[in-house]
Design goal:
The chain has about 240 residues and is mostly beta strands. The chain is about 15% helix and about 40% strand.
């Protein structure tokens, strides 16, 4: 009886060690992908579906960096010690329906070429501060996995008033672990897509973005020759080889 109890205790301890090791082998960090302050390395552009309003005076959607931000995240900034802005989108369509507006980063070299934002490590969740005007809208995040496949993750609905921090867990279907070396791959951000509900009025609405972040696991096991797993190091070492 005692021998059996001892085996049970040993088995329990081994299970505890396994669980602890699995949980310890990660390093979760919060990484800001874009502050939407108007001073990053990206130029943010928009495009819209076919019924976006176009007049002789202006075309929609319109965008601007405005001096507004969520007080819950950044305070009042009464002394003006920081330059705080958010990215605003003004949408308008000629008819109701499943209209959409894409918001995506482009190169700052003036070419308007869409680029993707790499997410370090293995992303676990995404969050962003969004200002809603209580219109029935929703917002999706487009991610590209290590195999080049696009995944659409619903960040949230925007039928609320004021600022709210929208959060979403990244599903396991987004392939991120990289088995081979160098450690290329991982997920990258492609774009946001704002949808209008088919019954919502779309003659004029506003949405604002601030501080897009990722919670990501940046744990890497060290081994002899670890530096050769870094794609940047490999590119430098082989730069002059024909």
């Amino acid at each position: 009886m005692r021998h059996g109890s001892f085996k049970v205790v040993c088995l329990f301890l081994l299970m505890c060690i396994a669980v602890f090791s699995a949980s310890a082998a990660q390093r979760l960090e919060s990484r800001v992908l874009e502050m939407f302050n108007g001073d990053s390395e990206f130029v943010w552009q928009t495009t819209a579906s076919r019924f976006a309003t176009q007049t002789a005076e202006m075309s929609f959607p319109r965008t601007a960096f405005v001096e507004a931000w969520p007080l819950a995240a950044f305070g009042s900034n009464r002394d003006g010690s920081r330059v705080l802005r958010s990215f605003g989108i003004n949408g308008r369509f000629d008819r109701r329906g499943h209209n959409w507006i894409d918001v995506f980063p482009t190169s700052a070299d003036g070419s308007d070429t869409p680029i993707e934002i790499p997410i370090p490590g293995r992303v676990r969740s995404l969050d962003m501060w969004v200002w809603g005007s209580n219109h029935h809208l929703s917002i999706d995040v487009y991610l590209r996995d290590q195999n080049g496949m696009i995944h659409i993750v619903r960040l949230g609905d925007l039928n609320f008033r004021g600022w709210r921090n929208l959060q979403v867990n990244v599903p396991a279907s987004v392939s991120q672990p990289v088995r081979t070396l160098p450690r290329e791959g991982g997920a990258s951000f492609v774009k946001f897509r704002i949808w209008t509900h088919p019954n919502e009025r779309v003659n004029d609405f506003f949405v604002y973005f601030k501080q897009f972040k990722a919670i990501t696991d940046v744990f890497e096991a060290y081994f002899d020759g670890y530096e050769l797993a870094n794609p940047r190091v490999v590119q430098e070492l082989w730069a002059d080889v024909n």
